[in-house]
């Protein structure tokens, strides 16, 4: 049977960064609460001319530059911070990237889980038509009200994932564990630009979904715990993954050391929560930084509040190291422009979506920018006109 899975992953993030040390100082909080207690160091903040479309397009551009458009007939855009209630964000990306018209584009939503649903759909499309390649884009801006417990767990970022037959990076195995429970741990009503979250409930809901998805994976004939050499998890904050994994290890009666998850936290500790993109950014970090994955089985746990969980496993393709982009992600993270707490809060206050006509200042140096709203419609453009 043809192997189907992840051929490439590209990452984008916001133009700015807020160091959590600065937020801790402003709020009179011990910085160790952020670095150790929740396991985050900083978070990305979009410039006024950035949003999910510009970040998603930047990540997707890298994929198209590397692999061309041949065989791409489907673009799936997953987000929970959509910019329009009707038009899929992926249609803007399609236009910016100049993709062929013989392409279907749609947006998917189920909190942070949407990107994994998109990858599952992509795997199905490629299984039916192995000559096709599916471009999955997951992009989000995590925004909570200032002066709430969730404020330090904001973030922004995007991942573009190319799903193909005979992939360079990971063959995804057919068995998956899934779990759904109706729970109000996190949500964003239509009249709000910031999410509402019951942080403590989100921890127990995440843990329940992880253990439930594991049990379902076992029932589906998936691999044993001891056959999985590495794990990556959705990371609303990295400590969440540790808390959940401790419970799973207890559940299956296996030893677990927190340090086992450290490499997969490397990028997310810097971007903050990127919702749908979080698990793919974690996976990119693992593939970039772990040298011993040739032919090894890894597990990927995706969680979307509300709530849906899914546990996938895959075999890392021998030779994956030849396709690493580690330098690229590090330089993206290092290039972010630091904000003071006042400047971040000013951007936060101005960050709500609007249908009023506006012009956005030129700030971002990413390939595409949000120019503003004209005639009630959002306008995007390349950052450098050539
Ligand atoms: N040094 C080290 N650790 C410290 C500390 C210090 N000085 N002060 C506190 N901590 C630890 C606490 O013990 C706690 O650890 P534990 O959870 O292992 O017990 C952790 O830091 C957080 O402290 P807590 O008081 O619970 O934080 P909080 O009330 O400020 O809220 C979150 C933390 C994560 C719940 C909150 O940021 C949140 O709701 N974030 C959003 C979560 C989310 O997005 N959920 C939905 C998606 S799944």
From TrEMBL:
<feature type="binding site">
    <location>
        <position position="273"/>
    </location>
    <ligand>
        <name>(3S)-3-hydroxy-3-methylglutaryl-CoA</name>
    </ligand>
</feature>
<dbReference type="GO" id="GO:0004421">
    <property type="term" value="F:hydroxymethylglutaryl-CoA synthase activity"/>
</dbReference>
<feature type="active site" description="Proton donor/acceptor">
    <location>
        <position position="80"/>
    </location>
</feature>
<comment type="similarity">
    <text>Belongs to the thiolase-like superfamily. HMG-CoA synthase family.</text>
</comment>
<keyword id="KW-0808">Transferase</keyword>
<dbReference type="InterPro" id="IPR016039">
    <property type="entry name" value="Thiolase-like"/>
</dbReference>
<dbReference type="Pfam" id="PF08540">
    <property type="entry name" value="HMG_CoA_synt_C"/>
</dbReference>
<feature type="domain" description="Hydroxymethylglutaryl-coenzyme A synthase C-terminal">
    <location>
        <begin position="246"/>
        <end position="322"/>
    </location>
</feature>
<feature type="binding site">
    <location>
        <position position="30"/>
    </location>
    <ligand>
        <name>(3S)-3-hydroxy-3-methylglutaryl-CoA</name>
    </ligand>
</feature>
<feature type="active site" description="Proton donor/acceptor">
    <location>
        <position position="234"/>
    </location>
</feature>
<dbReference type="Pfam" id="PF01154">
    <property type="entry name" value="HMG_CoA_synt_N"/>
</dbReference>
<dbReference type="GO" id="GO:0006084">
    <property type="term" value="P:acetyl-CoA metabolic process"/>
</dbReference>
<feature type="active site" description="Acyl-thioester intermediate">
    <location>
        <position position="112"/>
    </location>
</feature>
<feature type="domain" description="Hydroxymethylglutaryl-coenzyme A synthase N-terminal">
    <location>
        <begin position="4"/>
        <end position="165"/>
    </location>
</feature>
<dbReference type="InterPro" id="IPR011554">
    <property type="entry name" value="HMG_CoA_synthase_prok"/>
</dbReference>
<protein>
    <submittedName>
        <fullName>3-hydroxy-3-methylglutaryl-CoA synthase</fullName>
    </submittedName>
</protein>
<feature type="binding site">
    <location>
        <position position="144"/>
    </location>
    <ligand>
        <name>(3S)-3-hydroxy-3-methylglutaryl-CoA</name>
    </ligand>
</feature>
<feature type="binding site">
    <location>
        <position position="243"/>
    </location>
    <ligand>
        <name>(3S)-3-hydroxy-3-methylglutaryl-CoA</name>
    </ligand>
</feature>
<dbReference type="InterPro" id="IPR013528">
    <property type="entry name" value="HMG_CoA_synth_N"/>
</dbReference>
<dbReference type="InterPro" id="IPR013746">
    <property type="entry name" value="HMG_CoA_synt_C_dom"/>
</dbReference>
